[in-house]
Amino acid sequence: MRLRAEYSVGPDLRFLSNLDMMKLMARALRRARIPFALSKGYNPHIRLSMGTVLPVGLWGEREYFDLELEQEMSTSEFVEKINRTLPPAIQVKACIQIAANTRALMNSINCACYSFITNMAIEKLGLWKDYILQQEALIVKSRGKKKNVDKNLRLGILEIDVNRWQNFAIINIWVTNGEPLNVRYDELKDLLMQTGINEENIVDIYRSGNYIRVNDKYYSPLEKVK
After folding, report:
1. Terminal CA-to-CA distance of the chain, rounded, Å?
2. Smaller CB count within 10 Å for the chain: N or C?
3. Domain boundaries, the chain
4. pTM of the full predicted structure?
């Protein structure tokens, strides 16, 4: 039996690495007495597959993992049990059963939304959004494996919207993830600072979602499981 779960990671745990997150989940699964399956071999490990890596320094609203169980268990029971043992900053929000041949999260998620909380006027950010979307090229230095190589982020920026939240304005930027162009949050931050948004204007950054994009439509990994 395979499960796919959606969970949130709060700001208090923004500096956990991907390895730390996997260890945390594994400990929580053991404490909750979840009947997880183990891999074969001399060093068996829990058959837990995390989604796209949440960058160190960010918190996330909608992250995902797949888990294989060795016996049947209802999704509601799983959510209840795992949330009892997870720290308050991490909570499983939803869970579904998926087929054994469902594509892995890492091979399915091709889009992410990064959100920048700013202290700027929403009207000014509306003009900034229009300017960005009108450009044919938005060049920044890559922060990935090929560092300092010119990278055209415009090819990977899918949508932008600007919303008011309390006394702040939030810029939501949907970008491509993985091949052929992987857009990183720190490259987006560089772009903001190159185009008139100073670092002191950025109050916080988080990943608000991971998506499977098909024909310009966005699906959560819980919706699109084939």
Report:
1. 16
2. C
3. 2-106, 109-219
4. 0.93
What pairs with residue 114 in β-bridges? 173, 207
In terms of Cα–Cα distance, which of 185, 5, 38, 211 is closest to 112?
211
What are the backbone angles phi and psi of residue 128, rounded to the nearest 5°? -60, -45
Per CATH, 2-106 and 109-219 having the same topology is answered yes
pLDDT in tens, 174-213: 999 988 899 999 999 999 999 999 999 999 999 999 999 9
Return the structure tokens found at 103: 């594509």
Architecture of domain 2-106: 2-Layer Sandwich (3.30)
> Rounded CA gap, 163 and 168, in Å?
9
Are 65 and 7 spatial neighbours (Cβ–Cβ below 8 Å)? yes
Burial pattern 62-97, b for ≥16 Cβ within 10 A else e, equals bbbbbbbbeeebeeeebbebbbeebeeebebeebeb
Fold of the domain built from segment(s) 109-219: Alpha-Beta Plaits (3.30.70)
With a CB cutoff of 8 Å and minimum separation 6, the contacts of 144 are 182, 184
